[in-house]
Amino acid sequence: MTMAQRDEADRMVSQQPTGSGADRPGRHGKHNRASRREGRQARRTGKHGTPEITAEMRANARANPDSWLYVIDEAFDPNGPVPSWAVVGAYPVNGAGDVVADFHPNDRYRPSPKALGFPEPANDLEHLLQLVRTEHRPASDLPKVVLDATLFVYAMSPVQRTVIGFHNTDGRVMVPAYTRKSLVPREWPHARAVLGRDIVDLLGGHPVAINPHDLITAVVPAEHLLKAVADERR
């Protein structure tokens, strides 16, 4: 199963901070656990693209000298469990409790859809597509969700019950399907709503291209959908 995105999405990811700071806090000082609660106040960025140091963060640092002030991705609750890849980075706090303006980005950080400014998903499949795109969920989770999703597929007439595929730029035949009607190309004569599981046997072995003209797309092979159906019957 593969994911495909437009160049704009790739550029968005490439603009995220990178560096070698992921391991530095753990090696050089104690963790400022209280500072994790300031993650939401640290979402905004300063002049150089680093998280802004707020007054509340400075107050927290004064209460936790010789520590690290961690910045958490805004999609995560700083008071709950936070995986290492959801940490944007950290500021060192010196012995006087002052935040040192030397931000250490986490090179293992995976920006969330929210941090990247992705649009609000309209349904479960769109939500999962975004999580797979940002590597917060594996692509192997897609087939099961596709089965229960409402998809809009190409139709020559409102009564058509077959599916139609088109050649991709590399010559492969794919069946386009959209997660909402507003995404359907205007030049289509009709688009009928179907449940994902209802077209699995009609694909003829061809993959489904989900939202092929949107910011985030997925190509799901027919055999993966067939396996998901078979797994349900066990």
UniProtKB/TrEMBL annotation:
Record field: compositional bias (Basic and acidic residues): 1-11
Span list, region Disordered: 1-60
Top-rank lineage group of the source organism: Bacteria
Protein name: SseB protein N-terminal domain-containing protein
